Amino acid sequence: MSAQREIAIVAFHQSPCQASAGAANEVELIMPELRAVFDQVGLANAQDVDFVCSGSCDYLQGAAFAFVAGVDALGAVPPIRESHVEMDAAWALYEAVLKIRMGHADSALIYGFAKSSPGELPIVLSQQLDPYYLAPLWVDTVSLAALQARLMLDAGLITEGDMAEVVKRSRRNAMTNPLAQLAGETSVADLLAKPHYLSPLRRHDCCPVSDGAAAMIIATVEQAKAWGMPYVRLSGIDHRIESHNLCLRDLTDSVSTRKAAAAAGMNAGAVDVAELYAPFSHQEIILSRALGLGEDTRVNPSGGVLAGNLMMASGLSRIGEVFQRIVAGEAGRGVAHATNGPCLQQNLVAVLEAA
Amino acid sequence: MAQLAAVIGTGQTRYKTRRGDVSIAGLLREAAVNALEDAGLGFEDIDAVVIGKAPDMFEGIVMPECYLADALGANGKPMLRVHTAGSVGGSTALVAASHVQSGTFRRVLTVTFEKQSESNAMWALSTPQPFAVHLNAGAGGYFAPIIREYMRRSGAPYDVGIKVAVKDRLHGARNPLAHLQKPDITLQEVEESMMLWDPIRLLEACPSSDGACAMVIAAEDAVDSSPRPPAWIRGGAMRSEPTMYAGREEVNPRAGRDCAADVYAQAGIRDPRRELDCAEIYVPFSWYEPMWLENLGFAEEGQGWRLTMEGATSMDEGGDIPWNPSGGVLSSNPIGASGMIRFAEAARQVRGDAGAHQVEGARLAMGHAYGGGAQFFAMWIVGADKP
Amino acid sequence: MSEDNNAQAREPVTGMDAPIYLQYQFTAGRAPSRFLHALKQGRLTGQRCPGCSQVYIPPRGSCPACGIATDEEVTLSNKATVQSFTIVYIPIPGNPIKPPYIVANLVPDGANISFIHLLSDCVNEEVHIGQRVEAVWKPAQEWDYKMDNILYYRPLEEPDVPVELIGRLPVEGWEGQA
Fold first, then answer.
1. Which domain holds residue A171?
2. Which pTM does this prediction carry?
3. Taking all residues of chain A, what is their mean pLDDT, rounded to a whole number?
4. Which residue in A23, A72, A120 is closest to C30 by CB distance?
5. At the N or C end, where does chain A have fewer CB atoms within 10 A?
6. Which chain B residue shows the shortest CA-CA distance from C37?
7. Which residues sit opposite C103 in a β-bridge?
8. Do A61 and A148 sit in the same domain of this protein?
């Protein structure tokens, strides 16, 4: 097989994470983010890129074909090359990367969006489980994560103090992130003094639910140069899924994350920064260990999704966060991670490098 | 640039109103195993899995691919889920192909499905939204006015749709997998069937089916190890436009015309009617055959119905450009899979694998899917000859 | 296990009931909210795209053609033109309207796009493309944030609109057409 075309990330923007976007509907959430990335590159609208791909989930807003409204934000007249994944937009990015690699596009717009506030997200996501054996039990995602945390605690792999430490760092890092929903100075002792929510999880061990959208523009390195844009190389991207049967998995580890990282070429160099999609504090520890991240790596300098979680866009946002750190010169090489499914069932790893 | 890729296996289930004998996972696995057997492969030979279906609300499972990973041998592999409304079966095939054409993978399994009997698709399509008028007219209520406008513009006789309904069911009677088996259907029977959404009669509309369709797509260097001839992908294209905007051409949507022009250019086709041997086109309501004949450039605008009435699209009348030899969406409609069935049936034709509905000597065929308010399009051209 | 039990165990299970109840607090969107507020006052409004000047009803937040927010509010006429229609004969579960009934794509005067509503008080067989119709509102005390404030549209005694002019009449209707 011939050498693959190099992919450049050239623009990223996301909305603030807020518990409720109020009256704004999906189109109204998406349009400002698209405008922001078009303006960063100097493009008029989606007509100026070769391909568009989005990620969203109908059930979050409770209407079939909810994503179709997203097309109304694009200026898709005349018609455009466009596709959609019922997944986090990090996977929309993956689809766009394939389109560029195969030579059918030199540039692409990716966006993800959700208005999760109209429903009860953990309950909605309980319907993501095996429809015959699990979904009828209404086991919600928080309870499953609690079960996972319990396994880790009982195996002596973490302490509740370790979990609080993750939260403390997230809140502190988020103080420099104007888009974060939850930020502030706190201590492990304060956090451990809070009551359990779904034992062993406390409320702060769980990410908040946020409404919003995020958008990104990628291109071939040649196109990025032609645009005169500073860019970051997306040197690798891979994703893997594991069994849906939780009893068949070692929930204290993330095999699929490790596999994806290896396939994305993460181990070829040092990692300065990592943004991990860990909706629960103990999952950040699982992911950091699965990736073999050490002291030299800054983990979730944005605060991560514990500070704000734009469902269906948070994975793309992790990649966008790393992009912004590298463009700003704060890091030379970083990894970003996205997840989907109960207890980190499916994971994507992207490796970004300074141009 | 794009690497060569080919379909080396197709697999389908039988289509029925209700497949109570299998779970959702069992339904997909049936199609996947059939495709793998056709390709002479096992799950262990597959590098990535691409799955597609129409809205999750049709079965009531949020992102069902998580639950389906085990049944499709996807554990430890990449698995991607596509959803582009009714065109999803076609776009899923194209996304799967891009996994190979990008040089990223050698063998990809792609599966699409719908198990409509597990929920109520008519309800899912018309969930009451507050503030809107509660007309609950379903998909037919949306498309019937557009068909009426086509009839007005083209001056087509009232019975064109009836003719298509009979033709596709006679084709379907040759296909043992087809849901509706109506070898004795007559024009009169269709004309006398209940009017649902004037001008759409019951027998001019697609059924509601359970079913799944799968394909194995392989890179050039992985084609020869399979026992049967490949269907080479000669072109693939997608187009989208908004559902409604001022001045939108709804009868002959530009997204469809542009998509066709793109895929023909890739395959080097100038005159689709002459150069293609057959086509599997997404026709869920009978009148969409003449409308798409025009939209896809098989006929001049306003003239599509003449091809239909002359029998040009009918195998039984010896037509020169058979449309939907398999019986089409009018004979089987597991929504999320319907587009991929079109793509897979096009591949079967050029592989000489279509049994009683084989178009003799077919070497170049088209697969087509559309969705939403006739706004999302996916098309491919496959050929027996390596490009 | 007895033989009976074995036989029972071999019977396939072909279905199980697992009803799903999910509750949503739906919001209409900023632009639709402005439309609904006017509707509650008995006024049909559209919104004009600042890019292409086309007037949308109901406004959804953007001009889908341009991908930009619609802004300027435009009051529309109660009169409209039939762009196309279907007669629905199929009974749909949960739908209180008894078939046959007419669902029409209607363009109100002053707008450039059709919306779907009921056409009633008419002879079904005489409904045609280009026909002039007008809105029949509920009594004012029943008005809410709903399109159902308009019960249905009914035919008007006015000349038909030629097809090429459907979606292009000014808010004054035929009289504003030079």
1. 122-205
2. 0.97
3. 96
4. A23
5. N
6. B131
7. C86, C118
8. no
